[in-house]
Amino acid sequence: MTPRRSKHLLTAAIMLLASLSLSAQKTRPLSHAQKVAASYADSLAQLRARYADYRYMGSDTLANPYYAALFASPTLYRGTLRRTLGSIGYRPMANLENNDDATSTHNLLARANRLRNFSDHFLATTYSRQPWLVTNNEYTDDDAKQGLRKDIRTQAKPNLKLADKVVYEKTHDKQIDEPGIDIVVHKPNFWDFNADFALQFMQNYISDNWYKGGESNNSLLTSLTLEANYNNKSGLSFENRLEMRIGFLTSPSDTVHNFKTNSDLIRLTNKLGYKAAKNWYYTFSLITWTQFYRGYHSNSRTVLSDFMSPFECVPSVGMEYKYQSKKNDLKLEVNLSPFAANYKYVGRKSLATRFGVKENHHSNFSYGASINATLKWTVFKNVKWNSRFFLFTDYSSTLAEWENTIDLIINKVLSTKLFLHPRFDDNVKRKEGQSYLQFKEYLSIGINLSF
Questions:
Q1: Which of 106, 123, 443, 448 is the Cys-Cys partner for 415 at CB 3.0 to 4.6 Å?
Q2: Based on C-alpha coordinates, what's the Rg of the chain?
Q3: Domains of the chain in sequence order
Q4: pTM of the entire predicted model
């Protein structure tokens, strides 16, 4: 037997003797020898208290976790029974020879296994020869009653937000030099960019002698929609949408103009939101719009509208409801703003009264409320419906418009578009007998690209 092995055996025997002696006081009167052992056990108890919060550093035998069971309260351990009774040919005292040169992972694990077997040997001897001394088990220990594994049962909550900036400490004294390890840090990208381009056309030819009359015409419509949306997945969102649409029409009966616009729009929508509930957001939105080109009636040189005539800007504050189906085939957004304003600017003073601005003035400012709702719905596999409803009222006049675009998709490139646009505005100048309700519609076929 090696000196180190003898040292381990002697240490374990003393600790076990003291522990068993302390437990024996509960069962029968103490003899003189047992009193001596009890006195020594008190010293061990003080030593145990000393090491209660001790962190094992690998050099102290009494703090070694493999010896802890020997000087703790006599306890029945399930692991000891399983290793002792469940192993065929179990030899607890085997392989206890010292191996100071054991540096590999395999040898370190082997040494740990030998220390565990060493402890199991003395515990198993007590279980079989003096079972009345074992008064506790690992399930009825006082520590277990008080929730020894409460940390496991407690639900873990993350304390790191995705938007937080992580500051890394500079460690000049610690160098990591491990070959074959490459660390790649991917920063989260909260931005999402989309674009949709469409080029639609329509051609109609009618001969001069057609029995019902009529005239030939050609029309071209192009549109571009750009989106840049930010969402940090922690409640903050910033949505930006730019819509540009312009179309031209040629007609032989119009001898004044080679072409006229049949659709003209520049509209920018910005929304800053913060999540308030499951589908509700506090929202500040800003909608601005104008047009590219001048507008005329057929065979007339009178300008009816132009770039920045009018220009409208509607800032608002309110709540927005967002819904998206699980299959992503339906997306609904409804912005309710009880506090809104409407700034209207007309560059051509001659058009001021036509758009509700006082004569010889360029601008007008009013307060009220607004509603802005958008819907994207894939009705069928090749049928999509995009809708937008906007309303602003200053409680003396109302502007409401409802845009509907139905895409009939032929393939990845070709599609047919049906556009329906009713509009109501009782703040504009009109001719006697005309209604405030306006309507616009077109049907076209052409190229549609999304990227």
A1: 448
A2: 42
A3: 3-153 (no CATH), 191-450 (2.40.230)
A4: 0.59
Residues 6+ apart with CB under 8 A from 445: 200, 201, 202, 414, 415, 416, 417
Instruction: Report the phi/psi class of residue 328: left, alpha or beta, with left for phi > 0 and alpha for psi in -120 to 50.
Output: left
Q: What is the pLDDT of residues 298-349, one digit of tens each?
A: 888 999 999 999 999 999 999 999 999 988 899 999 999 999 999 999 999 9
**Furthest CA-CA distance within the chain:** 137
Instruction: Enter the tokens of residue 3.
Output: 């000196």
Element (H, E) at 445: strand 437-450
**Could you tell me the two tokens for 264?**
């003209």
Give just the sign of the alpha carbon dihedral 296, 302, 308, 312.
negative
Q: Is the peptide bond before 29 cis (omega within 30 degrees of 0)?
A: no
pLDDT tens-place string over residues 388-410: 999 999 999 999 999 999 999 98
Closest Cα to residue 355, out of 312, 310, 395, 394?
A: 310
Residue 449 Cα distances to 193, 223, 239, 292, 300, angstroms: 14, 11, 21, 22, 36
Q: How many Å apart are CA 134 and CA 22, to the nearest integer?
A: 11
pLDDT by residue (tens digit) across 138-188? 765 454 444 444 554 555 565 655 555 555 555 544 454 555 556 776 778
Torsion of CA 83, 86, 88, 90, to 10 degrees: 30
Q: Which residues contact 355 (CB under 8 A, 6 or more apart)?
A: 309, 310, 344, 346, 427, 428, 429
Number of residues that this document lists for the chain: 451
With residues binned 3-state (H G I as helix, E B as strand, rest as coil), the percentages for the chain, rounded to 5, are 20, 40, 40
* Residues whose CB falls within 8 Å of the CB of residue 388, separated by 6 or more in sequence, listed in order: 372, 373, 374, 375, 402, 403
8: phi then psi, degrees, rounded to nearest 5: -65, -45
The residue assigned the tokens 């049928």 is: 383
